[in-house]
Amino acid sequence: MRESLTPGVWGVVATPFQGSALDVDTDSLAGLVGYYESIGATGLTVLGVFGEAAALTPAERTLVLEVAVEETRLPLVAGVTSLFTGTAVEEIHAIQAATGDRLAAVMVQANSANPGVVSAHLNAIHRATGAKMVLQDYPLASGVSISTEALISVVRACSFVTGVKAEAPPTSVAISQLTDALEVSVFGGLGGQGLLDELLAGAAGAMTGFSYPEALIACVRAWQRHGYDAARDALLPYLPLINFEQQAKIALSIRKECLRQRGLIADAGVRAPGAAFPDVLRTGLRTHLAEAAAALGPNPAAAHVTAGRF
b/e string for 173-199 if b means 16 or more Cβ within 10 A? Predict the structure, then answer.
């Protein structure tokens, strides 16, 4: 049986910024990754699309990785921004240097609709780096649409692929087909909007971000232990906030403002081309955050982060 990424919730980590120059805020980042560990995340996904990796310099990407390594003991999946083989290899070498044996896999996006092209791309990367990979299908970010059948062909041809992140709607359909055909873990994303249906379709968990990651962890654990009814009950109180956060074009700024309101980061700034949080949504944000906080109840870990850092 081929190696497969551990099931559970791999939290996609936002990159906090500070000041008018939007420098990387390492204090907030340290608190955020430490919080993920304190609430029982399976691992961390850093330098993803919602980590604004494409807007970071190479030195900043290394800094983000170093903070995650220093502040937690969690395994890491690190995103690769480039769709071109040569620059992807350079990115991965830098990732490997910063993370060492903490790196569970790199996350590489499908760079073509042609499975032969994608397989050649991944194989060339593996020959140059030896890295294990999560294959990400996220056409909204990559601009590449690839069929589920082609993804299956790629994973079968690349034994070093240990997981698939399926983010091309309808995700539950794709995940059902992927899990029926493959032995590796398949994860949903997109902020957890389809998590219940993705679990029913065979997903191993979630690889995504949400301002209340506790809810995603509770849902997946309930699914693993007790099945659908328990998972639904765990996630249901948070669905209004999940839906609110995933609004097109402003999802990143909403999530960062939610994290700021929770005290998990100090500033909600996003880098271009991300849009700033629309202040007209503030009443809705406060309403949904209050509902989520009431559902969560007392949370000493969050209180510690808020009091200790900000």
Answer: ebbbbbbeebebbbbbbbbbbbbbbbb
CATH topology of domain 8-235: TIM Barrel (3.20.20)
Cα 308 versus chain centre, distance: 26
**pTM, full prediction:** 0.93
Tell me how far CA of residue 2 lies from CA of 105, 106, 129, 158, 183, in angstroms.
14, 17, 19, 11, 7
Query: Directed axis angle between helix 251-262 and helix 282-296, to 10°?
Result: 50
Based on the number of CB atoms within 10 Å of its own CB, is 259 exposed (0-12), middle (13-18) or buried (19 or more)?
buried
- CA–CA separation, 227 and 231 (whole Å): 6
Paired residues of 23 in beta bridges: 18
DSSP per residue, 131-162: --EEEEE-HHHH-----HHHHHHHHHH-TTEE
* Torsion angle, alpha carbons of 23, 27, 31, 34, to 10: 100
Give pLDDT tens digits for 121-143: 999 999 999 999 999 999 999 99
